């Protein structure tokens, strides 16, 4: 029933084979979507090479550099989509960053530049990419982002990223309210802790994972594939009535009080 054949999907945020974005890309491909992949360019081209080799089995029809702090690269990305595809159906936003110094220690000591960086990359980028995608989603569409429990609860060593995720979840609601008029749905997946390149910056990530395994109703954490399955569902017509929501894919941890 879950069929994305004929759908064009842009996936951002793949860094390596542990990335949640990689799990999502795999499941979209399995469902038949035509993929476009973006990567974060660097001076030596290491990320381009690494991501290109990883996604080769998915046969993406677009492979583009896109640093969301660079307006020209964002514009170029969506101009290429317009030229090559003509339309966009699915946008996967898996982008987050904060300086490691701003994750630990006292939250009141967060630097101005660190706060701005975290909010720009982790929160504003969803707004900006959604605005760029809007005119290309001529047949409606689905925009999906990744959040975490730290956006609604205080999590040790998360600090400014929690504020960024709270802003991200609010952005989901405001974007859903606006873009619903064009049959564009906007949702977030709140995944349980998974060992990724991004989560490695969070102090005590292994302790967090072990805690979830002990407390969550399913007595385990989740996999990239499980998050990818949920993203594929949200991108499909099976989720045609769902927008503005945060779906928890965390083995049930979010419901627990102790």
TrEMBL record:
<keyword id="KW-0275">Fatty acid biosynthesis</keyword>
<keyword id="KW-0444">Lipid biosynthesis</keyword>
<dbReference type="GO" id="GO:0006633">
    <property type="term" value="P:fatty acid biosynthetic process"/>
</dbReference>
<dbReference type="InterPro" id="IPR014358">
    <property type="entry name" value="Enoyl-ACP_Rdtase_NADH"/>
</dbReference>
<dbReference type="Pfam" id="PF13561">
    <property type="entry name" value="adh_short_C2"/>
</dbReference>
<dbReference type="GO" id="GO:0004318">
    <property type="term" value="F:enoyl-[acyl-carrier-protein] reductase (NADH) activity"/>
</dbReference>
<feature type="binding site">
    <location>
        <position position="13"/>
    </location>
    <ligand>
        <name>NAD(+)</name>
    </ligand>
</feature>
<feature type="binding site">
    <location>
        <begin position="194"/>
        <end position="198"/>
    </location>
    <ligand>
        <name>NAD(+)</name>
    </ligand>
</feature>
<comment type="pathway">
    <text>Lipid metabolism; fatty acid biosynthesis.</text>
</comment>
<dbReference type="InterPro" id="IPR036291">
    <property type="entry name" value="NAD(P)-bd_dom_sf"/>
</dbReference>
<keyword id="KW-0560">Oxidoreductase</keyword>
<feature type="active site" description="Proton acceptor">
    <location>
        <position position="148"/>
    </location>
</feature>
<protein>
    <recommendedName>
        <fullName>Enoyl-[acyl-carrier-protein] reductase [NADH]</fullName>
        <ecNumber>1.3.1.9</ecNumber>
    </recommendedName>
</protein>
<feature type="binding site">
    <location>
        <begin position="19"/>
        <end position="20"/>
    </location>
    <ligand>
        <name>NAD(+)</name>
    </ligand>
</feature>
<feature type="active site" description="Proton acceptor">
    <location>
        <position position="158"/>
    </location>
</feature>
<feature type="binding site">
    <location>
        <position position="95"/>
    </location>
    <ligand>
        <name>NAD(+)</name>
    </ligand>
</feature>
<feature type="binding site">
    <location>
        <position position="98"/>
    </location>
    <ligand>
        <name>substrate</name>
    </ligand>
</feature>
<keyword id="KW-0520">NAD</keyword>
<keyword id="KW-0443">Lipid metabolism</keyword>
<comment type="similarity">
    <text>Belongs to the short-chain dehydrogenases/reductases (SDR) family. FabI subfamily.</text>
</comment>
<dbReference type="InterPro" id="IPR002347">
    <property type="entry name" value="SDR_fam"/>
</dbReference>
<feature type="binding site">
    <location>
        <position position="165"/>
    </location>
    <ligand>
        <name>NAD(+)</name>
    </ligand>
</feature>
<keyword id="KW-0276">Fatty acid metabolism</keyword>
């Amino acid at each position: 029933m879950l069929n994305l054949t004929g759908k064009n999907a842009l996936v951002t945020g793949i860094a390596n084979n542990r990335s949640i974005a990689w799990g999502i890309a795999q499941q979209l491909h399995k469902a038949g979507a035509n993929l476009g992949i973006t990567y974060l360019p660097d001076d030596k081209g290491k990320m381009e090479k690494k991501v290109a080799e990883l996604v080769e089995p998915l046969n993406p029809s677009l492979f583009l550099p896109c640093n969301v702090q660079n307006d020209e690269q964002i514009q170029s990305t969506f101009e290429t989509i317009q030229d090559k595809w003509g339309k966009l159906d699915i946008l996967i936003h898996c982008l987050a960053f904060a300086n490691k110094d701003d994750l630990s220690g006292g939250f009141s000591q967060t630097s101005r530049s660190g706060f701005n960086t975290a909010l720009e990359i982790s929160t504003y980028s969803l707004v900006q990419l959604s605005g760029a995608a809007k005119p290309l989603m001529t047949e409606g569409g689905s925009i999906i982002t990744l959040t975490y429990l730290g956006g609604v609860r205080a999590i040790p060593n998360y600090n400014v990223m929690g504020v960024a995720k709270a802003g991200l979840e609010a952005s989901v609601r405001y974007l859903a309210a606006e873009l619903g008029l064009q049959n564009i749905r906007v949702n977030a997946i709140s995944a349980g802790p998974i060992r990724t390149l991004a989560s490695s910056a969070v102090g005590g990530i292994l302790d967090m994972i072990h805690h979830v395994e002990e407390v969550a109703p399913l007595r385990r954490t989740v996999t990239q594939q499980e998050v990818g399955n949920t993203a594929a569902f949200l991108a499909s017509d099976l989720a045609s009535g769902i927008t503005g929501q945060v779906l928890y894919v965390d083995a049930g941890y979010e419901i627990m009080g102790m």
